[in-house]
Amino acid sequence: MPKQPDRIFKVAIIGGGFAGVYCARELLRLTEDVADMTVGIIASENHMVFQPMLPEVAGGSLSPQHVVNPIRMICRGAEVLKGEVTHIDLEHRVITLNGGMFTPQVTVGFEHLMLAPGAGVDLSRIPGMAEHAYLMRTVGDAMKLRAAILSRLEEANLITNPRLRKELLSFVIVGGGYSGVETAGQIQDLIQGARRFYENIDPGEPSVTLIHSGERLLGMLSDSLGTYTGKCLTEMGVKIIFKSRVRAVTARTVQLGDGVSLSATLVVCTVGNAPHPQIKALGASGSLPVEKGKVVVEASGQVRGLTNVWSAGDCAAFPKADGGNCPETAQFAMRQGALVARNIAASFAGRALKPFRFTGLGELATIGHRKAVAQVFGMRFSGIIAWFMWRSIYLMKLPGFDRKLRVMAEWTFEMFFPRDINLLTPSFSSPLGEMHLEPGDSLFHAGEPAQSLYAVKKGNVNITDAQGQIVKAAGPGEHFGERALLGDGIWRFDATATESSELVAIDGDTFKILAQSIGSLDTLFRGTAQQYHLPEEIQNTVDMIPEATRKACASDVMTRNIAFLDANATVQDAVAEFQAHPHSTYPVTTNGCVIGLLRRSVAYEWLKNHGLTCVDKLQALPLTKPFCITADTPVPVLVGTLMRSGVSKAVVVDEEKKLLGMITLFDLLKGAQNA
Prior knowledge:
Layout: E1 7-14, H1 18-30, E2 39-43, E3 47-49, H2 54-58, E4 68-70, H3 71-74, E5 79-82, E6 84-89, E7 94-98, E8 106-115, E9 120-121, H4 129-132, E10 133-134, H5 139-158, H6 162-168, E11 170-174, H7 178-195, E12 207-211, H8 223-236, E13 238-241, E14 246-249, E15 253-256, E16 261-263, E17 266-269, E18 273-274, H9 277-285, E19 290-291, E20 294-296, E21 309-311, E22 316-317, H10 330-349, E23 362-368, E24 371-376, E25 379-383, H11 384-397, H12 401-416, E26 432-437, E27 442-444, E28 452-458, E29 461-464, E30 470-474, E31 479-480, H13 482-486, E32 494-497, E33 501-507, H14 508-517, H15 519-528, H16 535-544, H17 547-550, H18 554-557, E34 565-566, H19 571-580, E35 585-590, E36 593-599, H20 600-610, E37 628-630, H21 635-645, E38 649-653, E39 659-664, H22 665-674
Parallel strand pairs: 1-2, 1-8, 2-5, 8-21, 10-17, 11-12, 11-17, 12-13, 20-22, 34-35, 37-38
Antiparallel strand pairs: 3-4, 6-7, 7-8, 9-18, 14-15, 15-16, 19-20, 23-24, 24-25, 26-33, 27-32, 28-31, 28-33, 29-30, 29-32, 35-36, 38-39
Helix pairs in contact: 1-10, 5-6, 14-15, 16-21, 19-20
C-alpha cells in the first residue's frame, strides 16, 4: 500500500507554460464558488516565460525580467510547487518531484491530472551540438547568449590580427523557423548597433549565418512572406544557407552535410525538439498513449482511454478543428489550456465535454531592423506595418498590466536610444563546490535526493544507517555518495560531520558523465559503491553462512599458516616469495607485528621503474594500510565489517599487532556452499 502523498489536489497541473497557466487561471475562475476545489501547479520554474520575446532579450531590446511573470501572481488561488517531476504513477494517482538540494522528495496526489510540461530537447543527434551550441528556450539561455555575443566583441576588440577577429566574430544560427529567424535578426541588430562603440572592429568582420534545411524560411507562412523574410535578412547582412544540414559542431567550426566547413565560435541551435522525458517514460511503460513522442488526446483535451488525465501544449497531439494537429505556438497552447479547464469543470458537474474549435488567427514573426512578417485572417503584411502589428499583438498577450507597461516603455526607449551593451555575465553554478561543516552538522538524511559526490579534504564525516551504526567514517582523501548517484538517486544513509570538516562536492550530472566516459573511474566507483550496505543486506549475507560458523569468532575460522614478508627483506626477496607462494597480497611485518600489506602488482611496478636488480627494502615501497581485527571478533560482526570496509580480506592480530592469521569473506561463504 503506497504511503499517503504529502499533498493532494483536486486538479494537479504539470507545467508552467501557456497551456498549464491558462488552464489554472480558467479553472480557478470557473470553480471559485466550489468549496473543496484545490488546484496545484508543478513547474520547474516559479515563473512563466513569454517565449516569443526571448530573441529580443538576446538582442538587448528587452530586459530579462520583463518577459517572465511569477506564476503565483498570475494564478492567484492555486498552490505553486517548484520542482522537477521525477515520476508519475497514473495508477495510484501520485506524482513524485525533487524540490532541490535541501528538500526531500515530495509526493503529490491528484484526482485529475493535466499534463503540460512542454517538449524536451535532444541535441545528441548532431555530434558536438550539445557541447557547443547555445539554446533559446529559457530566459537564462537568452541571457547567456547575449553575454556571449558581447564577450566576443570585447575579445575581438583586443585582437590586432584581422583574420583572427573575423573568425572570432563568426556567428551561426541553426534552424529557419520562428525562433531561428527572430534570433538571427536580433543578433545582427545587436552587432550592428554595438559595433560602432568598438573602434578596432571593422564593419565587415562580424558575420551572422543562418542555416536552414528547407528551400525557404518560415515554412508555415506563405511562399511570398517566406521569400520576403529571406530577402530582408540578406539585406541586413545575414548570410542564409538553404537546403543544408549540420553534420557536426566543434569549438570553432560548423561542419555541413555537403562537406563545407564554416568558422563559428558561437552557434545557436533552435531545432532539436524531443519528447519530454516524463511523457516518454509513461509512453514506454504503456501507462499513456503516446505517438511520435506526443500524448494522444481527444478533441476535448482528454487523454485517449483515460477519464481523469488531460494534456495540452507542445507535449500533446491536439486535434485541430479543420484537420491535423495544432501547431506548437502560444496562441494554440493558451486556448487548449483554457478548454481543458472548462472540460475538467464540466466533468466535475457531470456535463458533456466540448471539443476544440479554434483554427488560428494567423502567424507573425519579427525579422529585426523594425521589420516583420504577418499572416492574419488570410491577409499578409510585411515591413514596418507588420512590425507594429507584431509588437501590439504580443504586448496585449502579455499577462499582467504591469508587464505590458514595462515592455511598452522599454520598446519606446529602444527606438530613440542605442541598445545597452553592458556585459553583465551571469554567474553559473560550478560543477565543483567547496563546503565547510562544523561538528554535528548534517550533510544529508536518508530519503533525500542525492545531488553530489563528496570528497573529504579535512575532518571526518560519518555515514550511518537507520540504527545509527557507522557504515563508513570518511576521512581526508576519501569520498562517498557514489552508490546513490549510480543507483536510484536517493540517499539510503545519514551523513554527519564529527569534527570541523572541509568537503568538495562534485555535481551529480558531472560525476555521471565522468564515470561513463572514463572506464577506470566507473569501475572504481562501482567497486566502492559496494561498501554502502544496508543492515538487511548484511543480515542476508550472514544468514547464508552455516549456523556453526555464525556462532564462531575470527580465531575459529582464520587461516593460520599464511605467507608474509619481513619489512627488512628486499624486493628481490619478495619476488622469490611470490614465486614460492603465489598470492595477490602479503602482510609485511616488523618483529612479527603487521605494519602494512604489499600487493604483488605494486612490487612488479616498482621493479619496472627502479630496475630489475632492485635491492630496496620492502618498507620503502608503498604499502597498503592493513585491515586488522582481533581474534575474538564474532563472525556476524566480521561479515558486516568486511562488507562495509570494501576490503576482501582481514588480518587477524593480537593486542600487540602481532600477526595471527588472515580471513576472507569468501572463506566464510565456502561453508555455505558446502552445507
